[in-house]
Specification:
139 residues, alpha+beta, 39% helix
Amino acid sequence: MELKGKRASGSRSGFSLLELMFAVTILVIGVMGAFTTQLGSLGVITTGQETSKATMELQAAMESVLVVDPDDVVDIFPPGQPIPAFADRNLRNETMVPTYPNYAGVGPIPSTLDVRLTVTWDDFEGRGRSLRLNTAVAR
């Protein structure tokens, strides 16, 4: 007479080594995928923070330019020369350079002077980045 629910002699319960290795492999792949996603998110967040800092630096530099008399802007902030007050303030290798697209550097300053500020820096991965801000200064 056979009893239901009883195992035949010699059979074992549990997982085989192959099944266990397969399960661990799937688990490791899942964890590595999650880790890679988190690492990518951290890079995006850091890039966003650096861009935000660069934008604030541009705004602060432009405000410095706008409070100067339009006739003195070119003398105080020479074209193509980094602005010393904005060198390496918040970003790695940060430089802020003004240019004046509608002024050749000689002769009278136009009644409406175009001002272009460009900030450049090295991001957290060492790549060169830059942003520009343009405005016009009128007398």
